[in-house]
Write a structure and sequence with these properties.
CATH architecture of one domain: 3-Layer(aba) Sandwich
Bound molecules: adenosine-5'-diphosphate, magnesium ion
CATH superfamily of one domain: P-loop containing nucleotide triphosphate hydrolases
Radius of gyration: 31 Å
Largest sheet: 7 strands, parallel
Oligomer: single chain
Distance between the termini: 31 Å
Strand order of the largest sheet: 13-14-10-15-16-9-17
Helix content: 25-40%
CATH class of one domain: Alpha Beta
């Protein structure tokens, strides 16, 4: 058959479900409620699992106490009340003459759900009740309804796909399977937009075979290669879109060559400060400590990007405490060296304020030429722009950014407001990038083009301590280059983490806090997370602080920090904690990201199991920031299994990347992409954890397919990708 006769996915999307044989108005509406409108939508609803009806499970082989999946037809069903007044539904399920009793408590609706004749899959533990095998409250997948078209074609004797049946839509797995089977038969062979050489290279089966294999396998062994190919397609589409996006950015870029090179980086701390040198060189030469090998390597990568005329788009990943701030500051200074400005955006006010304070200290004494001032030089001007400034203060910053008298602005989301404009924005750093959306990243970057007199693309560095596994990073940040700080500053001891789960342990924990404080160090106490209300959380933090100050920590200077406080108060408290006036800081998660007080050596996290694993690791990273041994205590009795797993993981590992992998295991896939990918671009079959080889293959094939002219040579692929992106974006990406 010639290619022209083969169907494309997009044509399948034009065929609405109403055109299928057994789909009338009612079923069209039902399918609509679960987001299925076209034949294409249907084909991408994948079976959750399969039952192999080519081999029958013998009911009499089921052993007591075992979890089992049993397929059978409901023969009898009835309900009655028990002596305790509970509704009990009893069903007899049989398969080829053998039977099993299935019992449900407090699920009266089951009687309606499974009238005699319904065939279903029952999952549960097999127990023994008065000598008879029985399942109590199993999970049920209704596969074949009691009447109607579904019974026409029995698939007994085949591999039966089980689709996520939807109670809401009132559709059984069997019905959905029927629609899909019809769709596949009517669609005929499908066009495969992936070059056959690529398929051969990575042992991938062709598209038509993959859809048949996943929906209508002849044998269970057909499923794996089908899944592999379909997962590959999901990853390939993402990689293609990322490659196109990247290409567009590069094509339309008006970047800046910043004056930074080897010479500026090649300097030992303590070098004599030469006022004629670049700011970068003066800064690194005058710094408190020598850079780690990793910091050096990353700075070279950044210097390469920044000195080139293409704008930098770089992700800097580094575990908590690995020293990202120095790297950020160096790149901002490179922009200032070129006579431009830098902007640093942080997710919270506490963090922005801390950056201003520490950066002002680090840059003290540095000057820059300015003909407008007496003497021709002035100190660098570093300013804070937060949402809580008074009108006049804010105006001062706005004016200074536009006339160029401010060199470096550090702020929160407030930087994104429309009236913030620059004279010449040269570099942008976004700290703790996971707290911001992709759009916010773009908004700040676009300030260079649209809200800056120079109208150039600033160099962009986004930083994150979230240890995203490599595969996930390739998907989430595939349009960014990546640098990794994989080394902790020297002399750091691993933090000792302990779960204090007995009264004795807890008492020991508070005793230890007192000892650390007595030795001149400081402590954090993190209050329990209260979902949904910052206000209630604040109130309970106040109470906890007061309680501790009277009881376990009596006699110590105990401060309080929470999200409802005014910025000035917060600033004051952090200042007192830094100087040691406050010895123990009771706080909500406002301190989660970035807070840096090296003297803090112990952190106590109350009800630790309520926090996410990444968050716990971030919180723990508030200590262990000097050469002293630091400690982390986790309090609380987990009331979920996942909570317990998180605590165990944290106790057993200090490695952010290992924890991220575990987190992925606990949470399952999908959440990692979060709201970032919408609708269809979601990875349904591909697993970021297990399909790393496929991801690499997809990346390679994408590189092959995208040429200097984009996807011009691949009209079929372009046609397909249009299914996955908004029309405006498609126009932008596919226009050559
Ligand atoms: P993060 O990557 O978590 O943002 P920071 O930049 O806050 O880490 O650095 C953590 C701490 O380590 C800070 O106190 C910082 O001054 C210190 N630090 C950073 N780099 C070095 C280094 N090369 N040698 C010693 N201490 C360092
Ligand atoms: Mg930081």
């Amino acid at each position: 058959m010639s290619d022209a006769a083969l169907r494309r996915l997009r044509q399948l999307d034009d065929v609405k479900v109403g055109q299928l044989r057994h789909v009338g108005e009612k079923r069209t509406a039902a399918l609509g409620t679960i987001g299925i409108e076209s034949v294409f939508d249907l084909l991408t609803v994948y079976p959750r699992r399969y039952i192999d009806r080519t081999k029958r499970v013998d009911l009499s082989d089921l052993s007591i106490g075992e979890e089992a999946a049993v397929f059978g037809e409901v023969r009898k069903i009835s309900s009655r009340r028990t002596k305790q007044g509970k509704v009990m539904v009893e069903a007899t399920v049989s398969d080829d003459g053998e039977s099993l009793k299935v019992v449900f408590f407090n699920q009266a609706w089951r009687e309606k759900q499974m009238p005699p004749g319904v065939q279903a899959l029952f999952f549960g533990k097999v127990t023994d009740y008065k000598g008879q095998r029985q399942m109590t409250n199993p999970v049920v997948d209704v596969i074949v309804g009691a009447s109607g078209i579904e019974r026409d074609a029995s698939r007994v004797g085949r591999v039966v796909p089980i689709y996520p049946s939807s109670g809401k839509a009132g559709l059984t797995s069997w019905e959905i399977g029927g629609f899909i089977e019809e769709s596949l038969r009517r669609a005929g062979p499908l066009l495969d937009p992936v070059p056959s050489a690529a398929l051969a290279q990575f042992s991938l089966i062709d598209r038509t075979a993959s859809l048949w294999g996943i929906h209508l396998p002849q044998e269970l062994s057909d499923v794996a290669p089908a899944r592999r190919r379909l997962a590959f397609d999901e990853l390939l589409r993402l990689q293609l879109l990322l490659a196109l996006r990247r290409r567009k950015l590069e094509m339309t870029a008006a970047g800046i060559s910043h004056p930074i090179g080897e010479h500026d980086l090649d300097v030992a701390p303590g070098a004599l400060r030469d006022p004629e040198s670049s700011l970068v060189r003066q800064f690194l030469g005058g710094h408190r400590f020598a850079l780690t090998q990793a910091q050096r390597r990353v700075l070279h990568e950044i210097a390469n990007d920044m000195s080139s005329a293409l704008p930098m788009h770089r992700l800097l990943q580094g575990d908590v405490g690995s020293g990202k701030t120095v790297v950020a500051l160096t790149s901002l200074l490179a922009a200032i060296d070129g006579g431009r400005q830098g902007a640093l955006m942080a997710p919270t006010e506490v963090l922005a304020e801390q950056h201003v304070a520490s950066i002002r200290r680090d840059l003290e004494g540095l000057t820059k030429k300015d003909e407008a001032v007496l003497g021709g030089v002035r100190p660098l001007s570093i300013q804070l722009l937060s949402g809580k400034l008074r009108v006049k203060e804010r105006q001062f910053i706005i004016d200074g950014l536009l006339d160029g008298s401010i060199d470096l602005v550090i702020g929160t989301h407030a930087l994104l407001t429309y009236d913030v404009r620059f004279k010449a924005l040269g570099a942008v750093v976004i700290d703790e990038q996971h707290r911001f959306g992709v759009e916010q990243r773009a908004t700040l970057r676009d300030k260079g083009r649209e809200r800056s007199l120079e109208q150039a693309d600033p160099d962009l560095l986004v930083m994150t301590a979230t240890p995203i596994p490599r595969t996930a990073a390739m998907v989430l940040f595939g349009d960014l280059d990546r640098s990794v700080l994989d080394e902790m500053p020297g002399g750091r001891l691993p933090i000792k983490t302990q779960w204090a789960n007995t009264e004795l342990d807890v008492a020991g924990c508070w005793q230890h806090v007192r000892e650390e404080v007595a030795a001149g160090r400081r402590a954090y106490v993190i209050c329990p997370l209260v979902e949904g209300s910052e206000k209630i959380e604040a109130t309970s933090a106040v109470e906890e602080r007061n309680r501790l100050a009277l009881e376990e920590l009596r006699g110590l200077s105990v401060g309080l920090l929470h999200g409802q406080m005014k910025s000035q108060e917060k600033e004051q408290i952090m200042h007192e904690f830094r100087t040691g006036e406050i010895q123990v800081l009771v706080a909500t998660v406002v301190i989660e990201v970035g807070v840096d007080v090296p003297e803090a050596s112990v952190i106590v996290i109350e009800d630790a199991w309520r926090f996410g694993l990444a968050q716990l690791h971030q919180l723990r990273g508030r200590v262990g920031r000097s050469g002293d041994q630091s400690y982390c205590y986790l309090l609380g009795e987990p009331s979920t299994e996942d909570g317990l797993k998180r605590i165990e993981a944290l106790v057993n590992s200090n490695d952010g990347f290992a924890l991220a992998e575990i987190d992925l295991d606990i949470r399952g896939e999908g959440t990692i992409l979060g709201s970032r990918q919408r609708g269809r671009s979601d990875l349904q079959l591909a697993s970021l954890k297990n399909d790393e080889d496929l991801l690499l293959a997809a990346q390679e094939v994408a590189k092959l397919m995208v040429s200097a002219n984009g996807l011009d040579g691949e009209p079929e692929m372009v046609d397909e990708l249009r299914l996955f992106v908004e029309p405006e974006e498609a126009d932008f990406l596919f226009k050559s």
